[in-house]
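Example 5.3 — Alpha/beta hydrolase
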Amino acid sequence: MNIIDITTEAGTAEVTYAEFGQGRPVVILHGGAGPQSVTAFAELFAARGDSRVIVPTHPGFAGTPRPDHLDSIRALAELYATMIDELDLTDVLLIGNSIGGWIAAELALIAGPRLSALILVDAAGLDVDGHPIADFFSLTMDQLADLSYFEPGAYRIDVDALPAPVKSAMAGNRAALLAYAGTSMADPTLRMRIAGIRIPTLVVWGQADRVVDPAHARAYATGIPGAALDLIDNAGHLPQLETPERLRDDVAAFVAGYQSALPATSRTPM
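Solution (predicted structure tokens):
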């Protein structure tokens, strides 16, 4: 694990991040399930041999500290924009799942030329009439599994059987998620603002997602100019867990597709 202090106009925060592989930078932003929900996918993606995959832990998750000024998705996006600058990352492929996708959408609006493509995986953040995002804070773990997965039985957690430190970290995750995203996990202004995203974008969604249902996929895909939409039949809210190879291959194919239209001198292997 690496730790870096990042200072924005709001203040300073310590960011812990994992890094896998070498090559073109890929930043993966996790959702409310925490960094462990994307770590295996990050390793799988890095195993292609052409990517340096960076996975930040949102401050407050996995037992990390969260300063009081970090209290919104926008604040996290500003934090990661500064982190990308300080790490001097360019040609960044940005991938976000759930609230990580919401952060990624905000980041794509402010990070400028350092980002080259955006992948939104079952992203929260939009207010879609008639399709509210499930209230995570009112659900039991069994209910959350039922809404999150194509095959819920494979991913159920017996919270009572978990060690005390794991329970404590889960409670911290929950508190951080509430601070950042609120109970609605949506920003009514975002749907209008995503029209300002100007980088190639792929919207990937599990058809079985009942946390953030596929109506949100269509809203993102129609709201972002030129965005492509990819629906996965046998996945729910976390395709990186249920169908990781399919997600990896779809992302690689998307990147290869948009890069084929670039001048040869601008292409990055993927």
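Remark. Strands lie at 2-8, 11-20, 24-29, 51-57, 92-97, 115-121, 201-206, 228-232.
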